[in-house]
């Protein structure tokens, strides 16, 4: 049976997306080093924890313009334009772009900043590219063809072969603080951190890392640098490219509140890295670890993406 995206030349699309990420990344890098647009952030929607810069807007405009020239019939979803209008994910080939993931990092010149570019077809994520132009690390994948660092090193890093997954109390876990600082949301996040990281009834994981970029959090899972990443509240453009990269590196991305139905627009995600001597069946080591860690994590009510 032919793949449902067999009508797309995903090899050409992936190379185009890599080149595009590097073009957008050059703008980000120049600004980061004080040689281009300002990195000064402006508050979005009255929330001082949610920023936008001229670079976010410029890079999205640049990227969309280049995509329209090459693929005029494709749809476009971007963080900055989606913030100002309603949108939906259709069956058409659709580009999903976060022009600067980690905007607060960017304004502080904290070097975990990325441009994230994904392609979905028939609501399935098939191509993903995440590029950190400050560290010059480009993560890329297309469905069925593995995940790569700088298009030359197969993930997981450095050999392309995963290590065994440790028990939960030996895991390194990615979290994010999020931009929603309302008391109920903050209390839930802190409770999850306390229950997963603490002793005396908690999971007491080995450590927690907060990078400030969901796209790069996903890439750290694909790389094997962290064992898992959990997030509630991220948007599609934060995780779309990273989802392809994690899965093609042998990991899983599942519903962040458990259950078998992964909702790409649900804004609740759990990514777990590849494991040696494992498979993708529901009884795999990865799925068992997912079920275990979710018992320590609290749900947060969020509105689904799109309309």
From TrEMBL:
Q: What class of enzyme is it?
A: hydrolase
Q: Which InterPro entries match?
A: IMPase (IPR033942), Inositol_monoP_metal-BS (IPR020583), Inositol_monophosphatase-like (IPR000760), Inositol_monophosphatase_CS (IPR020550)
The residues that hold Mg(2+) are 79, 98, 101, 238
**UniProt keyword list:** Hydrolase, Magnesium, Metal-binding
Q: Which GO terms describe its molecular function?
A: inositol monophosphate 1-phosphatase activity; metal ion binding
Q: Which GO terms describe its biological process?
A: inositol biosynthetic process; phosphatidylinositol phosphate biosynthetic process; signal transduction
Q: Which reaction does it catalyse?
A: a myo-inositol phosphate + H2O = myo-inositol + phosphate
Which cofactor(s) are needed, names only?
Answer: Mg(2+)
Question: Is Metal-binding there in the keyword field?
Answer: yes
Q: Which pathway does it serve?
A: Polyol metabolism; myo-inositol biosynthesis; myo-inositol from D-glucose 6-phosphate: step 2/2
Stated EC number for the protein is 3.1.3.25
Q: Which family does it belong to?
A: Belongs to the inositol monophosphatase superfamily.
Provide the protein name: Inositol-1-monophosphatase
Protein's organism: Dimargaris cristalligena
């Amino acid at each position: 049976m032919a793949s449902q995206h067999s009508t797309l030349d995903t090899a050409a699309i992936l190379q185009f997306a890599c080149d595009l990420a590097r073009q957008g990344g050059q703008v980000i890098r120049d600004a980061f080093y004080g040689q281009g647009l300002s990195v000064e952030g402006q508050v979005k929607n009255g929330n001082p924890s949610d920023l936008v810069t001229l670079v976010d807007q410029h890079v999205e405009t640049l990227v969309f313009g280049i995509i329209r020239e090459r693929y005029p019939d494709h749809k476009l979803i971007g963080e900055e334009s989606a913030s100002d209008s309603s949108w939906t994910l259709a069956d058409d080939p659709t580009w999903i772009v976060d022009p600067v993931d980690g905007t607060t990092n960017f304004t502080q010149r904290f070097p975990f900043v990325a441009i994230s570019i994904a392609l979905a077809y028939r609501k399935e994520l098939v191509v993903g590219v995440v590029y950190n132009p400050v560290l010059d690390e480009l993560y890329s994948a297309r469905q069925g063809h593995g995940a790569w660092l700088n298009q030359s090193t197969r993930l997981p890093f450095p050999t392309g072969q995963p290590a065994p997954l440790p028990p939960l109390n030996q895991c390194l876990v990615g979290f994010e603080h999020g931009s929603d600082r309302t008391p109920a949301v903050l209390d839930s996040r802190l409770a999850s951190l306390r229950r997963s990281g603490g002793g005396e009834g908690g999971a007491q994981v080995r450590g927690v890392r907060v990078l400030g970029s969901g796209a790069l959090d996903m890439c750290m899972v694909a790389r094997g640098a962290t064992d898992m990443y959990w997030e509630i509240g991220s948007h599609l453009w934060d995780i779309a490219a990273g989802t392809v990269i994690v899965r093609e590196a042998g990991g899983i991305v599942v519903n962040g509140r458990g259950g078998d139905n992964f909702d790409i627009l649900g804004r609740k995600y759990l990514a777990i890295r590849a494991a040696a001597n494992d498979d993708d069946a529901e009884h795999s080591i990865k799925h068992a670890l997912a079920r275990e860690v979710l018992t320590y994590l609290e749900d947060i009510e969020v509105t689904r993406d799109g309309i």
